[in-house]
Design a protein that fits this description.
Oligomer: single chain
Distance between the termini: 28 Å
Number of domains: 2
Strand content: 25-35%
Radius of gyration: 26 Å
Largest sheet: 9 strands, antiparallel
Shape: elongated
Structural class: alpha+beta
Helix content: 25-40%
Amino acid sequence: MIKIKKNANPEAYIRKEWLYTNGLGGYASSTIIGMNSRKYHGLLVAALNPPTERRVLVAKVEETVLHGDKSYSLSTNQYPNTFYPKGYQNQIGFDRKPFPMFRYKVDKFSIEKTVFMVQNTNTTLVEYQNTSWDQLKLRLNPLYSDRDFHGLFFENPLYDFYVEKNGKAHVIYPRYGEIPVYFKYSKGDFIDAKYWFKNIEYAIEQYRGMDFAEDACSTGYLDVELEAGENVFLLFTTDKEYLEHDPAKLKKQEEKYIRSIRQKDIKDEFVQDLIYAGDQFIVHRKSTDSASIIAGYHWFSDWARDTMISVLGLCIATDNKKAASSIINTFIAYLDKGMIPNRFPDYADEPPEYNTVDGTLWLFIAIYEYYRKFEEKSFIKKAYPRLAEILKYHLEGTRYDIQVLESGLLYAGKPDTQLTWMDARIGDYVVTPRNGCPVEVNALWYNALMIFDLLSDELGKKNAITPNLAQQVKKSFRKEFLNDKGYLNDMIYCGSEPDTSIRPNQIYAVSLPFPLLNTRESKSVINHVKKHLLTRYGLRSLSPQSRDFIGTYQGNQWSRDTAYHQGTVWPFLLGEYYLALLKTKKKKKKAKDEVETHILGLKDHFYKDGCIIGISEIFDGDKPKMGKGCSQQAWSVAQLIRVIFTAGLFQND
């Protein structure tokens, strides 16, 4: 349990968050004191076109304990220049397992609040239990919204939040023609009292330089008396049929689902919790009726690059064959001109975006690892023609000047494009364009060619598309990227000097299944990465010795995006660093101990900071400590899982 100090400043909890997902891209999320500090927070953030078109429908519930002429608030909000009410002063703790649970102590009363969603439905339940010895009375006041989760909501005469009642079930229509919210309570008396809560502020949005204040609407409040040990459920849903479900049975159903995620042969609780955290990203995509992976909560959708990297840890390493094949097929279904989509947009009427050069190459890695793990030749046989199609388009040239040079190296992009994972862009300004031959892209290109050769042999086919090209690429790679300082150039430009910046992208030449360097060269690369880039929480995206290094990720969008890949620390890169280290160390036991010890450096963050039971997207490049960006990032979690399973770490004998 995380203890909540009675006289603590609530600002201490603004970045301590919880998240509970529903397998559709929807979620419930807030801080551990129940105060929303992001516009993305809410009790019911529904995915109306899974896993996208997410809308904040229920912001939160205002909660008060009534005793005689006294009242004790359990909820907290931030308003201009103040926090009100100050329910955090009556909270004693927060637990995350198995569900987010808030513990309160006021006067002689103690209360537990539990929040959870139901898998595969936009349904959130909130349970309040009287853990006192005496009867108590609660006043519960749901606050509603109706907006895209990127936006903000304000009092508007068009939004009247019309309510239809049928006993303890309500249908709330934010406005005419909108999708309603269904609300049900298990006991109590509801009192109609429509009221707008104005100017609720979100501290993290203010920190990010975004608009940060909005309104929420109450249609009334529920008064409920609970005997000692008694509980009450509130249910919010977009699925009318769930009004007929027993909340207690839904809770047991969800507990059973959580137990099903656990791996029976794993004793280490940290590893089990990593697997549970990773499961939050696996979602259903309606457009293909198959699985996909959300790149990060709260605001990302499913991205090709992130998905192909994450599936290695979240599904393949954990033996989730069904999800792995479904996810890979999701992206193959959208293959176009030899490219899989970089990103699926948030809205159904927008086409997929194809601005990536490495996402498609990561598909080869995912398929290769899938085959190594499950040895399913029928899957490879079906995927093989699509891989051949990809190679043909790359050889002939496809979008964004992606083409194979005479040297065999893969070239991509123009100064106004962002095609690699270093893709920050502000308007027309591309922060790290990297047009030319990026080092990690060509390491992936070489691996794609090697994998296609291998699969051709496995299927008894002749590779008539890229015969001998892999060896040409390897020769050219070593000639162009290896420099006399013992590390790899980050970029090669046609007719210009290479970019010799020390960046983490070079680690892929060692970590990928088919390395391009010998052992001595690999160790030299690892040593340079360790010296310049390695931190407790991940690898820096640029050496601090570079004049372009920005050590702090903060401020408005311009400040944040210009720092995003210019020194900011990325936890997901640790996976590649660990794999490279384990490959090159002769003393395997010592190497495993080193990696295991370093992973434990993230354990406090995983359990106590940022998203509780989660790993943030990024950290500051200079003195990294506090997680930033998305509070729960798929590949941050996935890469640790991948390394743990690959190397057999945290095995209790």
